[in-house]
Each structure stands twice: as C-alpha cells, then as structure tokens.
Amino acid sequence: MQLIWHIYSAIILLHLAGEATSSCSTYCSCKWKNGKQTVECPNRNMSDIPDGLDSETQVLDFSKNRVGKLTKDLFLKKQLINLQRLYMSECRIKAVHRDAFKGLSNLVELDLSRNFIETIPTGAWINCPSVMRLSLNENPITTLKRLAFNHLPYLTALELSNCAVEDMEEDAFLGLHTLERLTIDGNKLQTIPGRKTLPENLKVRLPCHGPLLLVAGNNSTVDRTTGLRWSAKATRSPFN
Ligand SMILES: *[C@@H]1O[C@H](CO)[C@@H](O)[C@H](O)[C@H]1NC(C)=O
Ligand SMILES: *[C@@H]1O[C@H](CO)[C@@H](O)[C@H](O)[C@H]1NC(C)=O
Ligand SMILES: *[C@@H]1O[C@H](CO)[C@@H](O)[C@H](O)[C@H]1NC(C)=O
C-alpha cells in the first residue's frame, strides 16, 4: 500500500514539474498560432509580464495592461529572448529604458501604440535591430529628433499617426534605407524641414481622403486635404 502511495506521489510530482517547465500564466492563453508559439494576455490590468513564460515564446500580445514603464533588461529577465512579435499597445507606457529590449535580436514587429511615450526611445533600438514594423501611433511625441530611428536598418513600416508631432529635425529618418511605408497623419506638422529629411527611397503618395501616407515608388497623387506644406527646395519632386 505504502509503495503504491509513493509511486502515486512521484507521478504527481513529475506531472507538476512537467507543467512548471512549459507553464502558461493563469492570466494568459498560450497556443500555437500561425505557426508561432504565442502567448496572449491582453486586457488583464496587469502591471508586469508574468514570470515563467516559456522562453520559446515567439509572439506576445500584452496589450491593454498597465505596465507604466519598460525597465532595464525586462525581456532578458523574463527569458523571452525569442520574441519575434511584441504587442504592447495601450499599456500606459511612459518610459522605455534604453536596455529594455536587450536580447530581442529576433524581434521583427513592435507595437507600442496608444501609450504615453513623449520621446522616441532612440537609444533602445540598438537592442532590437531586426525590427521591420514599428508602431508608435497615438503617443504624445512632439519632436522627431535627428537620427531618431537609427539602428533600425531593416525597418520597412513606421507608424507615427495621431501623435503630437509639431517638429521634425532634418535627418530624423536618417539610416532608414529600407523604409517602404511611413504614416504620419494626424500630427501638427506644418512643414518637412528639407528635401533630405524623408528616406530617399520613399516617394510620396498622399491619398485625397484618409491618412497622409508615404509609400515607396509612387508619387503620382498629391494630397490637397491634409494642409501639409513641403518646404523642400526641390525643383522636380520634394524627395529627390
Ligand atoms: C486595475 O488595477 C488597479 C490597481 O490594482 C486598480 O486600482 C483598478 O481598479 C484596476 N482596474 C480594473 C478595470 O480592474
Ligand atoms: C500610383 O498610385 C495611383 C493612385 O493610388 C495609382 O492609380 C497608380 O496606378 C499608381 N502607379 C504606380 C506606377 O504604381
Ligand atoms: C516622381 O515625381 C517626379 C516629378 O513629378 C517624376 O519626375 C518622377 O518620375 C516620379 N517618380 C515616380 C516613381 O513616379
């Protein structure tokens, strides 16, 4: 009888240990989605990413929580260094430490939209150099300083809609050689400071209704509704 009890306990212990190594927080749902190991915990009013999530996680949806700030080595400490997509929209983020994204060398998509970020966390990009899509929509960012997105050599889509941008320094987008799409509608920009400000391969396409959208390779339509004036001293196109 006692032997059976011991075996039974051992089985339970093994079972618990097995769960601990591939654990999912009670507040998250962990599953394979579109071929990626995905953890979803949106809208849980959580102030921190739970500990002990599987380090193989590739996609983390942590939007609509109340994180407040992205601290030093956050994802390194959570052992989430295999993240490819990180969604932290509406997380009340005000501060992003320059080493917050340390270890995220595989990250290709980063959504930080609808937060309280006032300054582009330029120094933090160096830790996630593979990012191809970056959304900073709806943050109270007032100035785009020079080299704001340096260290993001693969960025193809940058979203800066509905921020509070009123100032853009020349060379704000310097280094973005592969950018194909830039949305910057809903800001307070009146002018773009010079003909070299926008990435060279971006041609302008400004649909008459809808967002100011700059896409590569097509400058055939010109917006008449956004009120944006181009101060570039270009004779042919503002962007070449
Ligand atoms: C979220 O958590 C905070 C702090 O614990 C609490 O004050 C607030 O009421 C919570 N909000 C919701 C919607 O649960
Ligand atoms: C450029 O954009 C316009 C309007 O969206 C479209 O009609 C046109 O076919 C495009 N031209 C090229 C070469 O992509
Ligand atoms: C962009 O516009 C300029 C001037 O209107 C024109 O010379 C150039 O061919 C256009 N480029 C494209 C890709 O449509």
Automatic annotation (TrEMBL):
Pfam families: LRR_8. It comes from the Eukaryota. Residues 1-22 form the signal peptide. Coiled coil: none annotated. GO terms for cellular component: extracellular matrix; extracellular space. Keywords: Leucine-rich repeat, Repeat, Signal. This is Uncharacterized protein.
